[in-house]
Amino acid sequence: MLARLGLFLLCLGDAAWVPGATGLTVGSVLALGIVSGSLHLNVRGIVLVTILQGIWILLVVAYLLRAQSPSSREEADGRSI
Q1: What does the DSSP assignment read for 5-42?
Q2: pLDDT digits over 4-31, tens only?
Q3: What dihedral angle (degrees, nearest 10) is formed by the CA atoms of 16, 20, 23, 27?
Q4: pLDDT confidence of 42, banded at 50, 70, 90?
Q5: Which of 5, 9, 33, 34 lies deepest, with the highest CB count within 10 Å?
């Protein structure tokens, strides 16, 4: 699912390129690890998957917060010009 979300973000265009590429890479590596048998879905494997997905989500949040324009920040705070 993470790889599909990353691919979708890549298809959105230039604005979502960084989080899309990261999600596609992380999701593909996880899927490849599961399919090849290198990543077992026991407690350690699930924890690893959860940590990698959490890191990806934090990267997307940081990217979106940095990309937010000052005018939209003022609207979100309830202030208007």
Answers
A1: HHHHHHHH-GGGHHHHHHHHHHHHHHHHHHHHTSS--S
A2: 666 666 665 555 666 777 777 778 888 8
A3: 150
A4: very high
A5: 9
Task: Tell me how far apart the alpha carbons of residues 62 and 58 are, in angstroms, rounded to a whole number.
Answer: 6
Quick one: what percent of the chain has pLDDT higher than 90? Answer: 5
pLDDT at 72: 57
pLDDT exceeds cutoff 90 at 43: yes
Q: Measured between alpha carbons, how far is 81 from 74 in angstroms, rounded to an integer?
A: 8
Give CB contacts under 8 A, 24+ apart, made by 61-67.
Answer: 63/18, 63/19, 64/19, 67/15
User: Which residues, in sequence order, are CB contacts of 19 under 8 Å at separation 6+?
Assistant: 6, 9, 56, 59, 60, 63, 64
CA distance linking residue 68 with residue 10, whole number of Å: 19
